[in-house]
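Researcher: Structure prediction, please.
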Amino acid sequence: MNDAVINRYDLARQFAVQAGQLTLNYFQSDRYQVERKSDRSPVTIADREAEQLLRKQIASHFPDDAIVGEEFGVQAGSSGFRWILDPIDGTKSFISGVPLYGTMIGIDFEDECQIGVVYVPGLDEGIFACVGQGCWHFRGKAPPTRAQVSSRPLSDGVFVTSEVAGFAKRGAAQAYAELERLAYVSRTWGDCYGYMLVATGRVELMVDPQMNVWDAAAIKPILEEAGGRFTDWQGDPTIHNGEGIGCNQVVFDQVLEITRKFAGR
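Model: Predicted structure follows.
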């Protein structure tokens, strides 16, 4: 791992915690209004201020890096590095006063995912990874510990998703029904928190029928470095196809048998 990657890896972890902690200024309070974006998804001042903080920090340390953020779009760069930001992944949880939301930073180089960081400020818990360096989980000030996916089959495991209705929206309600039938437990502990549960071996499968690149960029290196898989519904390891499967190695083929029937919808 070269110095350019190391520097960004170290600072990305710091930036994610800073931005996540900022959101706590608004969390479970009446100090903000909820707005609706064009796709009807919610956004708040906490989303915007957290992303502005991230952009300011990136510009200060790496002015030639590109940035893609959920709230403020694309900023071109010339270094080959690109930061992909989701200041609050799980805004619906945030506005409901539920702490299962997080700040996400993914960094790619020449379109290859290199670094992923997720911080869940309401729980003071996070996870981070860099290609070739393993995946690490932390709580509070305790030293990070190595994160590893489970080896349980779905029949003994947990299947989570962000929102069940998303399957029906893409004509794949039957996919959800089949996965729920196969799993021992199914829950909607979704968004970035669900993928963190997979990477730490607490959950076996997370499936998203609808994703943006900022939802996926941090997750791919995290799951792969934890020994798991992150792919689209066809099994391709990409963050760009608007959908996601995050799982351990044991359940991967079984899940693809289901999702491939509904891919492309």
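Model: DSSP finds nine helices and 15 strands in the chain.
Researcher: Thanks, that helps.
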